[in-house]
Amino acid sequence: MRNPVSMSRDHVQSDGRTATDAAVPAGPARTPDDGVEAPFLELLARGAPAEAYEQPVLLARAEGRPADRIAALEKAKLLALRVRAELEGRRRREAELSALFETAHDLAGLRDLDAVLQAIVQRARSLLGTDVAYLSLNDPARGDTYMRVTEGSVAARFQQLRLGMGEGLGGLVAQTARPYVTDDYFKDGRFQHTLTIDAGVRDEGLVAILGVPLMLGPHVIGVLFAADRRARVFEREQIALLGSFAALAAAAIDTANLLTETRSALAGLERANEIIRDRSAVIERASEVHDRLAELVLRGGGVHDVAAAVSEVLDGTVEFAEADTAPPEALEASRAEGHAVLHGANWIAAVAAGGELLGALVLRGHAGLDPVDQRTLERAAMVTSLLLLARRSAAEAEQRVRGELLDDLLDARDRDPRLLRERASRLHADLDATHTVLAARLDGPAADAEQEAAARRRLWAAASHLAATRHGLAAARDGGTVLLLPLGPGDTATEAARRTARQLGTAVHEPVTVGASAPVAGLLAHPDALAAAYAEGRRCLDALRLLDRRGDGAAAEDFGFLGLLLAGERDVAGFVDRTIGPVVAYDERRGTDLLRTLDAYFACGMSPARTKDELHVHVNTVAQRLERVGRLLGDDWQGPARVLEIQLALRLHRLAAPTRH
């Protein structure tokens, strides 16, 4: 008996339609884009590999679908692959942070040093995707370093290697206290190759090796490695991640050593009971803060939450200080030693990650700090660095997403408005509101190309933060930054430009020049309007720089008649209204002849005597009319700059007036 599904498929095909067509209910005529996302959404939902995304396109070609249908599938495929790549990147970052948090939690309840070190090596190998990961420790008595933990190793000789200081990649790392990486170990002449080490590495089949030092203060106690059996280039983020695991491994070893020293001291002291009670209280406080810090991390607490928790445990005031506000000598000493240092009556614990100083935890007015409490402060600084890194990663991800959306609005104006609106909504941006487009650029001196690039990155970061707080978008573009900001009630493009120039300049500590477009509404209904507005903003920016108004902000309306040339749309009526609007309105209300008097006045070389002959009126009448014009336009209306604009506005008003027969 035939399968019912097969029979149904045969029946549909006998009617001249394919199985794909049969799955769609009869109804109104479908466009080529209808339903193209469905197969890719299903692939995204089940986490299919990248090559599987070709199947819907290949099936459509095999079924002889129209070219526009296939093109729509290709477009949907590319979008789905981008989404998949973004999701993969986020999952990878989440996995890295989760592994670091799990390892930090392991340290809080440290019982078995070997188990913790094995977990660190396993997680490092998994996250870096290498064939092998291993950890070696220094032997001060023999003056060399030896294998302590391996993961993925298959060669016994490799697992038993001992490296002299300066020998091989690991020996060089242990000797110099710096990370080293090679994409082909046997072709790399930087290392001192020995028969023993090369034989062990060859047995294991390793080619690419990355090694980072395990540091306790200024001292190297070992090396953490990740290696592949093929040529490979390790990225900077991977080196920093392995360095973070190395810091955790060093902390685990340090903690284990402290516990060993504590047990030995307790066993050898005559007043064991008293010391046990004292130490128990201290360790209980340390355990309490460890548990509280772990809880803070798990529920998404911030840096100041960590400082508050440590303040309660240490019975003092703990504050987080930015790197540029903490005492520089104490901060550098804490980072170099890997411990909190005493500075006056305060303790300073550096908050650092990957060699970068992120700030410090400052314990105030507590000079007599117990060593275990000091270690608690140092561990709180480590947790703070993890939280700051997590917050930075999230902020950078949001900045990239905002920049990508603005780039799509500027460059890919044929995108689906519904999808653009949904993406903007997730970023709390309303594309249906009235916006202004601002082109911003740094105008401070740059010593070299590297400093200029760093300044541009600071400008982009400051613009992204400003856009996020104002529910707008920002992207790096054309050597500067472009922002799309909503205009509030009563707000003007000029005010937005000046405010943005001031805020960005304060943030980057350099003058920032900003040119703004006229207000833009209906971005999704008029996709070309955004690109035109950006071009207008750039023209205003260039005009400000040519006029040597660096560090200022302006829109086209601020340049008088030059604004007609800078604006994307020639707003003649707006220029006329801004220049002589009060006079036009006065004539219309009162039935006077002020405009005709102004025309005659300028035509007669601004001579009242000749003007009265031209108009056939008394000279006092001319004087009275000109006095009225002055009250309407301001006392400076006869200044050279104003005269030029008024004459141009009169000419444009006359040309725009309907011809009288």
UniProtKB/TrEMBL annotation:
Region (Disordered): 1-35
Isomerase listed as a keyword: no
Family matches, as InterPro entries: CdaR-like_regulators, CdaR_GGDEF, GAF, GAF-like_dom_sf, PucR_C-HTH_dom, PucR_C-HTH_sf
GAF domain mapped to chain residues: 112-263
Keywords assigned by UniProt, alphabetized: Membrane, Transmembrane, Transmembrane helix
One Pfam entry name: GAF
Family, as annotated: Belongs to the CdaR family.
TM ranges: 205-227, 239-259
Protein name per UniProt: Cyclic diguanylate phosphodiesterase
Keyword Metal-binding: no
Stored SUPFAM superfamilies: GAF domain-like
Superkingdom: Bacteria
